[in-house]
Amino acid sequence: MSLVDLFMVVPNPFLSALIWIVLLVIVMYTARIPAHKAILSLSRVIYKALRLAATAVRSAEARLAARNKEVLLAAGREATERIIEREFDRIDDTVRSDLSGYPALHRKLSEEITSLEQDHTKSMDVPPSPPGWIEAVEAVAKIKASGDNMVGNILGDIHKSLVKAHEDAMEEYREATKERHTLLKNMMPPWRRVKQALGSVDKNVNSILIRSKTIDRHMDEYEEIIKGSDRAVAKLSSSSLVQFFVSAFVLAVAVGGAAINFSLIARPMAEMVGGTSFIGNFRVADVAALVIIMVEVSMGLFLMESLRITRLFPVIGSLKDQLRVRMIWITFTILLILASIEAGLAYMRELLLHDELATSALLRGETEVVENQFLWITTAAQMGMGFILPFALVFVAIPLETFVHSMRTVLGLILEGILRGVAFLIRLVGNLFRYFGQFLLYTYDLLIFAPLWIERQIGHRSGKDGHGTVRRRGDLGEAKS
User: Fold this and answer.
1) Is residue 399 a contact partner of residue 310, using CB atoms and an 8 Å limit?
2) Which pLDDT tens digits describe the chain residue by residue (481 residues)?
């Protein structure tokens, strides 16, 4: 017996299907209230569960946002403290180098000013005192002319003496004036020295004032960071994003330089350690070349840490100055040795390439090999690149530190956005299940629309406005509530 024969109530298949549909509608109409409650309960359970999950995700997002804010403010506070400390160090250097000699400068200025005052006093124009015989001349001038020759002779002698005295006085006045002008001329170099010294003092004081304004600006930013204002957070976030992408670009450039460095030394390394040996799927020569480059980068990191340019390893920065200086010289010596080795490997690479070209020419049957007169140019260029690239890789530590510190903020922002998106999706799915339950209710009533229509018509005719339907709708409302 097949499954179709099992559901055959009467010999006619269409009539059997109709009977089953009528029975199913009657059963569904009878179980309408419990079915509605079951659908609403299921949709409500799913909606509440997804809503709780969304609330949990939003709570995790809020905690992550608070943590990101703390990390961002801590990083900004540390960076601002370093900038303020550097500005104070610069002011201290300026005060020590420029203003430490202020007492000597003050003494020198006092001496110059005293010398100028003395010269100025000496150069003052003092009018000559009138001669003592002017009164005698006035007395003689009062004598009445009587035609006496003696009086005329006396007056002539007086005139000659007066002219001679006038000439002597004018000569003395010219000499005194010349001496005063000489003194005034000699006052110019001291004035210039005084002006130069005062200009230097003014320049130093203005430099300190400018740095103090810079410190005031950084202190305002530091106060904003301490308060944790939204403006400071937004500024630090944008700064972290910019630093992240810039440092990532610089690191990409450094990776390109490391790749070029690798190509310079990988081929000659195969002649040193063997080109047929493998470690897993990698050649030993490639691994050895990569290890040399990694050691150079590590030495560069240690050198930058010893110079206190970066702070990736606080242990190195906290060493004693004597031990730190010793570590600087050790790392620099290792870098110099590795750079010299790479220069030698680059030279060896050019020789190997030349030998391969000569061998290929002989294999082709060429008896004469043309010598390249400009081979030394490419050789020198490769040796220079092999020597310079290790020192260039030293500065990778600076963008690496910036990348590491800014990556924490960027990852936090990305995770925060992901959590916000997940919370939105969960709430969206929860609302979809909620309204999908309503859709199932309407679909259920649509399937049993015939009994519901009959019930409504009976209720209208009896004047009770469908009491039974009202009761069921009340139950349905209670289920929906």
Assistant:
1) no
2) 455 555 565 666 677 777 778 888 888 888 888 888 888 888 899 999 999 999 999 999 889 888 888 888 888 888 888 888 877 777 777 777 666 666 666 666 666 666 666 655 655 555 555 555 556 556 655 666 555 566 667 667 766 776 777 677 777 777 767 776 676 666 667 666 766 777 777 777 777 777 777 778 778 777 887 877 777 788 878 888 888 899 999 999 999 888 888 888 877 777 776 666 777 777 788 888 888 889 989 998 999 988 888 888 888 878 888 888 899 999 999 999 988 888 888 877 777 776 666 666 666 666 555 555 666 777 788 888 888 888 988 899 899 988 988 888 888 889 988 999 999 999 999 999 888 888 888 888 888 888 888 888 887 777 544 444 434 444 434 434 3
Whole-number Å distance between alpha carbons of 207 and 204:
5
What is the maximum alpha-carbon separation in the chain?
192
